[in-house]
């Protein structure tokens, strides 16, 4: 006999039925992802503080996964909430990214657990494509304070910065080939939303500022890139469907990436400069 579903499970499946996202294994894999760049957060906060005075009180990171985009907010707010529809992701966040002023909770993005006008900043980091967007944006308007900000951002790749345009083009092709092989296995049908830089999303706010291709650099390793591409939901579903072919796919990606690194005399474990190009949308609610 199957166990009776909890109310939490029923709510989760109502909004995000893709089961792969709920597994403990998938939550552990997400820990390979790097924390959001401080440079990006400071850009978001600069926009927020144009009309919201300090001290800043409350922020919420929706679709927080294992907390990489949540803890980065902690130095700036009295209280930060990380929310995710997956209890497994929340469990991982609590285990690996716990701070005194950060709390985590499992709940759908479309039913935010806040009173009207009580949150100054809401972030959705590489997660909007998982949500029922219209319902999410409507609830964001409900809970944002006057002059509060929604920051939606995401990135599709993490690459080494070797300062060579020809090599950058080769890396772009490498990612394109990898994405093409994952195409049949994408878990969220809305992934194209992020690929299109959210151009087709109607954000119902008085102020909407689009900041495409915000490049943020940080230290990392080539092995971190391989770990990152292994976190893609499409790859995880590929593994469940055809593990041998999936391993061959990521093996080919790894081999070519390491060959490029070797041409610059960099090993997979050497510390080098990496970068991510974020797509950032800043939305301000001015009509409370």
In short:
Belongs to the methyltransferase superfamily. By secondary structure, this protein is of the alpha/beta class.
Tell me about this structure.
There is one protein chain. The protein is of the alpha/beta class and 288 residues long. The protein is 38% helix and 24% strand. It contains ten helices and eight strands. Helix 4 (87-96) links the parallel strand 2 (77-84) and strand 3 (102-106). Helix 2 (24-30) packs across helix 4, helix 8 runs antiparallel to helix 10 (243-263) and helix 9 packs across helix 10 (243-263). The radius of gyration is 19 Å and the shape is globular. Residues 20-24 have low confidence and may be disordered. GO terms for molecular function: S-adenosylmethionine-dependent methyltransferase activity. Residues 61-151 form the Methyltransferase type domain. It holds the Pfam family Methyltransf_11. Keywords: Methyltransferase, Transferase. InterPro entries: Diverse_substrate_MTase, Methyltransf_11, SAM-dependent_MTases_sf.
